[in-house]
Amino acid sequence: MDETYTFFPPAIAQVNRQYQHQQVDRALKSAENATVDPSDPALKAACQEMESLFVNHLFKEMRATIQKSGLISGGRAEEIFTSMLDTELSSAISASRGIGLAEILFKQLSGYSVQRPEAESE
Length: 122
Hints:
Elements lengths: L9 H24 L7 H24 L10 H21 L5 H10 L12
C-alpha cells in the first residue's frame, strides 16, 4: 500500500506560527521585565568564568601558531601540561583584573546602561 505523507494544511500551519510568535513575544516581555540584582555574585562568577574561557581560547589559538621544531619535544605530556597551564593562567588573569570582558558582560546582563562619554567640544 502506497502511503503518502501530507503536511499540515495551511490553516493549521498559520495557527502554529501565530502560537510560536505569541510564545516568543511572552518570553521577550518576561525577559524585559526581569530584574537582576546588580550585586548578584552568581552572575559575576559566570561572567568571570566566561572571560576565563575566552582567554583560554586565545592562549590555545596563539599556541597553535607556533611551529614546533621537534628538537625538544615533550610529546603528549607537554601538550597536556601546556593545556593545563593555559587553563590556570586564564583563570588567574580573569580572577585578577582580567581583560575587561567580564565587566562588560556583567553590565550588559545586569541591565546597567553603558554610558558613552560625550564628545568634548573645543
